[in-house]
Specification:
The protein is α/β, with parallel strands linked by helices. The chain contains 14 helices and 23 strands. The chain has helices spanning 15-26, 41-49, 76-90, 105-117, 145-152, 166-178, 180-187, 201-210, 261-267, 314-321, 357-368, 393-415, 419-433, 440-443; strands at residues 8-11, 32-35, 56-61, 71-75, 95-98, 122-123, 160-164, 191-194, 214-220, 225-229, 232-233, 238-242, 245-249, 256-257, 268-272, 278-291, 294-300, 304-307, 310-313, 331-337, 341-349, 374-380, 436-439. A seven-stranded mixed beta sheet has the order 6-5-7-8-9-10-11, sandwiched between helices. It is globular, with a radius of gyration of 23 Å. It starts with 7 loop residues before the first strand and ends with a helix. 44% of the residues are buried.
Length: 444
């Protein structure tokens, strides 16, 4: 469907149409809006009516892990610069195995790289996510590592690449550690890009022990994909730290946000360079540091709570917790506390043999101090995730609020002599959902 502003809205499950339209857009044709399964039709129609920045080739809706998704306008030049920088960093063009949603920049960039290389990508077989699921099971759930590796066996180019998110990579490593054939198939990739979230030290160690060519990627829709690999800029990307914030410059930067001039002006700033030339910088909102020319991203600047007057980074808590056995899926959230104001609360996918919660608390206390120690941990069979594999923080927060409200109701019923029937209903519901909230006091 082509709109008055020329924007072509194309379902990602029509791969031939999407590839043809993308090739046209990269050559100066009509801009493309990839539409994933379950897209908000009204939002798509609104984008097709909105004025687009001059030179727009692709519009990407961000995953919106902490709230409302944004629509990012990217030029053909930015997309090309990103793809060329990636191939240069990885040792040359090759064939891509697509296992990420192509309505997101992480998936779409594999199509751009394929188009510029003149090598057809391979799409991993659909998993068990139901209609519209992309790849070998979307990162949102149902990912099947065996089916992804089976798809890899159909790749014909001498150089093989794949891009994944950490939850997918972790499950691939699980399989490779059990089956020698899976490990060999994983080693045949010339590079396994992993991004979208931080890659824990534990995952890196496992990959190294298996001989997997892991490359850690950092980037976002606003940079047309990954622009920093293993802490080092690729292509003409520039990195700086200002007031603790990671800021990026280079030819891969987006044109801005569709229909939001104020946010564009806030996030994309122009300053004079060393020779007086204008340099455009993107303010990522990520906290980080440069040590010896290597970028380390430590978390989101807005993912900070104040506990007893002490600032606590939820991302730093996650980094420590995820190093412990059975806690690699942990998500840290802020929870209200009557004495401390806020305390850290964890949600983790149930896993046999996980370290006890007391050990988790001790590890956080030793590394980050008493204010960062998690007060609660809630187990669930599956953490809700967005298309790109990131935890859905909004959904998690709402779920925890409802869960705690049910506990408060239960305690009130018990205090008021509500009886076993009133007390039993919330407990039964939790057992059915595989949830178990354990307070710090219960671990002592």
């Amino acid at each position: 469907m082509t709109a008055p502003n020329g924007l072509r809205a194309i379902p990602t499950d029509d791969r031939a149409w999407l590839m043809a339209a993308l090739a046209d857009a990269l050559s100066g044709g009509a801009p493309v809006l990839p539409l994933g399964p379950g897209v908000d039709a009204a939002a798509a129609a609104g984008l097709q009516r909105a004025p687009l920045p001059e030179g727009t080739a692709v519009v990407i809706r961000t995953s919106g892990s902490t709230g409302m998704p944004k629509a990012v306008a990217l030029s053909a030049a930015a997309l090309r610069a990103s793809a060329e920088a990636t191939h240069e960093a990885l040792g040359g063009p090759g064939q891509w195995l697509v296992a990420l949603p192509t309505q997101l920049i992480s998936g779409l960039q594999m199509l751009v790289r394929s188009e510029l290389a003149g090598v057809a990508p391979v799409f991993a077989a659909a998993g068990s996510d139901g209609p519209g699921a992309e790849g070998a099971g979307s990162p949102r759930g149902g990912f099947d590592p065996a089916r992804l590796l089976a798809a890899a066996e159909t790749m014909e180019h001498e150089r093989r690449y794949v891009s994944l998110v950490p939850v997918q990579f972790s499950r691939l490593l699980d399989l490779a550690e059990r089956e020698a054939a899976a490990a060999e198939a994983l080693r045949r990739f010339d590079a396994v890009l992993v991004g979208g979230q931080g890659v824990s030290l534990a995952l890196r160690r496992r990959a190294h022990e298996l001989g997997v060519a892991l490359r850690r990627s950092y980037g976002m829709s606003e940079t047309a994909g990954g622009c920093v690999y293993d802490g080092v800029e690729i292509g003409e990307t520039r990195v700086r730290i200002r007031a603790g914030e990671v800021q990026l410059a280079g030819p891969t930067l987006a044109l801005g946000y569709v229909g939001d001039a104020a946010l564009t002006a806030q996030r994309f700033v122009e300053e004079p360079g060393r020779e007086g030339e204008p340099v455009r910088w993107y303010r990522t909102g990520d906290a980080g540091e440069l040590l010896g020319g290597m970028l380390t991203v430590t978390g989101r600047l807005d993912r900070v709570l104040i506990s007893g007057g002490v600032n606590v980074s939820l991302d730093e808590v996650e980094r420590v917790v995820r190093e412990l056995p059975g806690w690699h899926s942990a998500v840290a959230l802020a929870a209200p506390h009557p004495e401390w104001g806020e305390r850290v609360s964890l949600v983790v996918e149930t896993e046999a043999g996980a370290a006890p919660f007391g050990a988790v608390r001790d590890a956080v206390r030793d590394r980050l101090g008493a204010a960062a120690v998690p007060e609660w941990a809630t187990e669930t069979e599956r953490i809700p995730r967005l298309d790109g594999g990131k935890p859905d923080l909004v959904a998690l927060g709402e779920w925890l609020r409802r869960l705690r409200a049910s506990f408060a109701e239960l305690r009130s019923a018990e205090a008021g002599g509500g009886g076993a029937e009133a007390a039993g209903r919330p407990q039964s519901r939790e057992r059915q959902q595989g949830q178990d909230e354990r307070t710090a006091e219960e671990q002592r």
